[in-house]
Write a structure and sequence with these properties.
Blueprint lengths: L4 E3 L10 E6 L9 E6 L13 H8 L3 H9 L4 E3 L10 E8 L4 E10 L2 E9 L2 H13 L1
Antiparallel strand pairs: 1-3, 2-3, 4-5, 5-6, 6-7
């Protein structure tokens, strides 16, 4: 079951697949968060055209693996990413079946599209966050 968390998502054409209640984030001029639960009928994927090759070369993470982590129904999404300087990016920690690992994925919503920024094998801190969320449920 997907966790209901503050997440930013651009899931085009999937309005019937999600339940959302808008939660204001920042000032009205800024973007918004949505508290949502996605059903698994709507696949969550990011656009990796600009950063996919970098992520693969730098961290050995294929964009398809990152998309599997984003689409994990038990993913943990943190908005904004605590390491973000701009406060505009989201950290998602989820399972990639192909990689057989927990992957940390950084994404950015810009002009209504979800862009992949970076991804790596989850470090011990991110893995602890996942375990903590599992205990809290």
């Amino acid at each position: 079951m997907a966790r209901s968390l503050n997440v930013l998502i651009a899931a085009e054409g999937c309005a019937e697949s999600k339940t959302c209640a808008p939660v204001a984030y920042g000032s009205p001029e800024r973007w918004f968060d949505f508290r949502m639960t996605l059903s698994h009928t709507c696949q969550v994927t990011a656009d990796w055209n600009e950063r996919g090759e970098y992520m693969l070369a730098r961290h050995g993470i294929h964009p398809a693996w990152a998309n599997e982590a984003l689409d994990d129904p038990d993913r943990l999404a943190i908005t904004p990413d605590p390491a973000s300087k701009s406060g505009r990016v989201m950290r998602t920690i989820g399972w990639s079946y192909t990689a057989n690992r927990i992957i940390t994925v950084i994404t950015l919503v810009d002009n209504g599209r979800l862009h992949g920024v970076n991804g790596w094998v989850a470090n011990s801190g991110d893995q602890r966050l996942c375990r903590q969320e599992d205990r809290d449920e």
